[in-house]
Design brief:
Strand order of the largest sheet: 1-2-3-5-4
Number of helices: 4
Order of helices and strands: HHHHEEEEE
Number of domains: 2
Strand content: 15-25%
Distance between the termini: 74 Å
Structural class: alpha+beta
């Protein structure tokens, strides 16, 4: 073991380990290493009070598992909430008005979304007259699928 490591107090070794794990988390996906970094930070507590290596290892293990169990789902939800829909996917769920009647079995009609005209087909089994309000439920190629709003 290098001599400078034996000169450091044990709590400082745990701190260095935690900092290294947090730094490595920046270049790896998944938030796994950060959870182990939290465990290393928790292992500092018994190290400060002269706890044995076994107690420190237990704090590290339990802290890491708790962080994985508690923090990982929270971070996954936080990053998933930032998922912004773009392109055609951004239109799904939006409201629109039928500008040209949509006739079932006749190739559809047209709807207006934010001033743009789109070809649309009905996802229900009846015609939709011009002027009716619809919700976009999906798309196939450049043709939107819509349903009436009651």
């Amino acid at each position: 073991m290098p001599e400078f490591i034996s000169l450091l107090p044990v709590w400082q070794l745990w701190l260095v380990a935690a900092l290294i794990l947090f730094a490595l988390e920046v270049i790896t996906p998944g938030f796994i290493l950060a959870c182990f970094g939290v465990g290393a930070l928790l292992a500092i507590v018994p190290a400060l009070f002269g706890g044995s290596w076994l107690i420190q290892a237990i704090f590290f293990g339990v802290g890491s598992l708790l962080a994985l169990w508690l923090l990982k789902p929270l971070m996954a939800r936080w990053f998933a909430a930032r998922d912004t829909k773009t392109g055609m996917d951004a239109l799904i769920g939006r409201k629109a008005f039928v500008s040209e009647a949509i006739k079932v079995g006749d190739g559809g009609g047209r709807i207006a979304v934010d001033g743009d005209s789109w070809r649309a087909v009905s996802s229900v089994a009846h015609d939709l007259p011009a002027g009716s309000e619809v919700r976009i439920t999906g798309y196939t190629s450049l043709v939107l699928q819509v349903e009436p709003i009651q």
